[in-house]
Amino acid sequence: MGSGLAWALALPLLLATMPAAVAGPEGLLILVGDSTTEDPAGVLDAGEAWVTADALGKALGASVKALPDGRVAVCAEEACGLVAADRVRTGPPLLVAAREGAEATGFTATLDAPQRIVRLAPAARHPASPRRAEPGRAIPDFILPRLDGTPLALSSLRGRRILIVNWASW
Predict the structure, then answer these.
(1) Which residues, in sequence order, are CB contacts of 5 under 8 Å at separation 6+?
(2) What DSSP string describes 44-80?
(3) pLDDT by residue (tens digit) across 105-146?
(4) CA gap 64, 40 in Å, rounded
(5) Could you tell me if 62 and 170 are in contact, meaning their C-beta atoms sit under 8 angstroms apart?
(6) pLDDT tens, residue by residue, 9-25
(7) Is the pTM of the predicted complex or chain greater than 0.70?
(8) Taking the domains of the chain in order of start, what are their residue ranges?
(9) Whole-angstrom Cα distance, residue 156 to residue 114?
(10) Residue 153: left (phi > 0), alpha (psi -120 to 50), or beta?
(11) Which has the closest alpha carbon to 112: 30, 41, 56?
(12) CA 115 – CA 29 distance, rounded (Å)
């Protein structure tokens, strides 16, 4: 039997015994449930995972956009959040600290550094603190800057009718 044929027969057996989710020496794997997203440009630095914005968005089914002030907005179906500028590395590629990127949309991130795997899982939410407005519930308080830069808290407008207009460019 020729060596090419021997390899053709042995290769499926070798692949079957290898772990299903192990990243190579470069890059990271992002696991969400049964889904795996490869991030060849993801890095480990001082025991912390930094994932590309593209891979994070694909893994979470989210839109990940860099903002002019250096922060990153991460928006999934029911949640949007911001990642602080000091937890973002501009690229190329744009890298986001995995923990903060996950937390922006209500997920947790755990790192298996030896295997170079980042596992994302939905975070448990306390039932008394909803993350979004729901019919029959008060809107969670928030503070936004006025045009002159002074803060305006939603709670300061209690009892008054207000219209909130929300717009995003993505």
Answers:
(1) none
(2) EETTEEEEEHHHHHHHHT-EEEE-TTS-EEEE-SS-E
(3) 889 999 998 999 999 998 876 454 445 666 767 777 778 888
(4) 18
(5) no
(6) 554 544 444 444 444 45
(7) no
(8) 24-122
(9) 50
(10) beta
(11) 30
(12) 9
